[in-house]
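User: Study the fold:
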Amino acid sequence: MALIGDFGNAPEATHLLIAIFFALGFALARFLLNSLVYKRLAIRMLYGPVVPLIADATRKSKFIKCTESMWKLTYYASVQLWVISILKKTSWAMNTKEYFSGWPNQDLGLPMKLFYMCQCGFYLYSIGALLAWETRRKDFSIMFSHHIITSVLIGYSYLSGFFRIGTVILALHDMSDVFLEAAKVSKYAGKEMAASLFFACFAISWFLLRLIFFPFWIIKTSSYYSIDSLVKSGRFPRSSYYIFNVMLLTLLVFHIYWWKLICAMIIRQLQNRGKVGEDIRSGFFLFHLSLSCTMEMRAALLFRFRFRLILLFYCFLKQLLNIKISSSNFLFY
């Protein structure tokens, strides 16, 4: 009780204990929802009124993955609505240069801190679930590393006082996950058109939010625009600055890796003339893009995908090389 009552004050390491409580709560919620809701819905989606008596390995795997997607969709959709309601009440959400203004004396309130602990708890839970609960996919090691880095990043940014930019980063990432899990659930339900629509939204949001806005606005703000505000505080957090930005760049590497898989999935659909193909990650989940275009159009689309990906990397490297540290005081911290 004392911990909860003191939670509204400045960040402390003891506050992270609340994230552990959230993690345990997520494990319990997952178990209850799985038993009472998701399994019944999955049976109805996959088999309808007639349930097969013999469940082979493929059907069992499909059933488990369906319940996993339902759980993730529930979480990501709920937490995305929550963070949007929080950011709507702020004056700095749409101005990246204000993310570090007034650091470290930024008043962010209890709702945002609870949101932080909730997200940290979810990724702590996800580490355990990935090891003991969820289906292992081909990118297991990448996903495991992602969950660890994200958990550390959330906790570290909380203790460092980088609340504002951290909250926006979480909001950007969850948006793509909502579309992805919605596409999976639609596919399991046999709604091909909805699955194609959600997957298109997922691919577009991933590219725009994680490969455009994240590096060119978020990372640029964290590595460049933040310097003046941090120097003005009188105690530049040298270690926090470098550790935080290194972790953001590591996340960007993961984003590029997964974007490569997304492009490969899209290209495979183009090459299959719109026929259902395999998900490169799991070897099971099938995305379907209903395309009715000529071979010449498909070849042109393939060229555009590859050209834009190369152009993105070029622009990002050029942007990094053009960054100059304007404050000479920075050299002495």
Remarks:
- Residues 12-46+61-255 form one domain.
- Residues 192-232 form the longest helix (41 residues).
